[in-house]
Each structure stands twice: as structure tokens, then as C-alpha cells.
Write a sequence for this structure.
């Protein structure tokens, strides 16, 4: 897991060319000009999903992905994301191979996404996003999906 700011993202570009593509997209894009939806950056290897939604009071089913790294960045608002090593999850509840998502039960520690904060989550990182900071609010988020490998 990596938790930093957009100002420092390009320092991590040497991790992989795909991550560099994702980091450049976040650092250089004017998101106010883009509608919600999927944006192809490099086919199925790197793509972004922009969405607007309401945060919720609790998310007690952390998720993880097996084929993709998540690069999560809030464009508007703030939310908490519970994070934990996948190895500490107590139970796998369900999974969907086509959507590359598995849900678990287990404890997490919360990090705040807001301002220029970015959270990069690898397949070994369980995460429970979309949690309200105080009261629920409408947020806008960009999640760049980066195929590992």
C-alpha cells in the first residue's frame, strides 16, 4: 500500500510503466472537464473509473482485487478507507472473477482520502472504501485500475 499526495506520485513512477501512466493521468488531468464513467488509458491494462456517490456510515466488508492495483483519488469531498493486509482477513464472503473483486470480513484501520491524498492498493491490500467522515456526503472519486504484472 502507498499513501501519499499527488505532488509526490511521479517519484514512484519507476515501480512500473503502467503505474507511471496512472500517476501521470492523476497529476496532469483536469477532471472538471470529464464526466463520470470509464476512461481508457491503455486498454484493459490501465483505465480510470470516475464516479459520484454518497459516502456511508460503515463498510464492514473489505474488498480486494487479484488482477488489478487500485489507485484511489478523491476529486471532491472526503471519505475514510479502511485498510489492512489481506492476510489478516478472517473470512472470504464472496467473489466475482469477471469484476475482479472479492469481499471479506476482518478488521481494518482507517485512512482519510481528501485534498491531494492518493491511496495505491495492491492485491495483498484489503480495503473498505466509501466511509463517511462524520455525516454522509456526496463525493466524486477517480479510481485508476492498473493491471499488475
Amino acid at each position: 500500500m502507498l499513501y501519499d499526495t499527488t505532488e509526490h506520485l511521479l517519484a514512484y513512477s519507476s515501480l512500473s510503466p503502467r503505474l507511471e501512466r496512472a500517476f501521470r493521468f492523476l497529476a496532469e488531468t483536469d477532471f472538471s472537464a470529464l464526466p463520470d464513467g470509464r476512461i481508457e488509458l491503455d486498454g484493459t491494462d490501465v483505465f480510470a473509473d470516475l464516479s459520484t456517490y454518497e459516502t456511508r456510515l460503515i463498510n464492514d466488508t473489505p474488498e480486494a482485487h487479484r488482477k488489478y492495483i487500485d489507485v484511489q483519488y478523491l476529486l471532491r469531498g472526503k471519505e475514510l478507507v479502511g485498510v489492512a493486509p489481506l492476510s489478516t482477513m478472517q473470512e472470504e464472503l464472496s467473489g466475482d472473477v469477471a469484476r475482479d473483486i472479492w469481499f471479506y470480513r476482518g478488521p481494518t484501520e482507517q485512512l482519510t482520502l481528501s485534498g491531494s491524498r492518493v491511496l495505491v492498493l495492491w492485491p495483498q491490500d484489503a480495503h473498505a472504501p466509501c466511509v463517511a467522515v462524520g455525516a454522509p456526503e456526496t463525493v466524486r472519486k477517480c479510481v485508476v485500475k492498473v493491471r499488475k504484472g
Q: What stands out?
A: The first strand starts at residue 2 and ends at 5. Residues 81 and 129 are 4 Å apart (CA to CA).
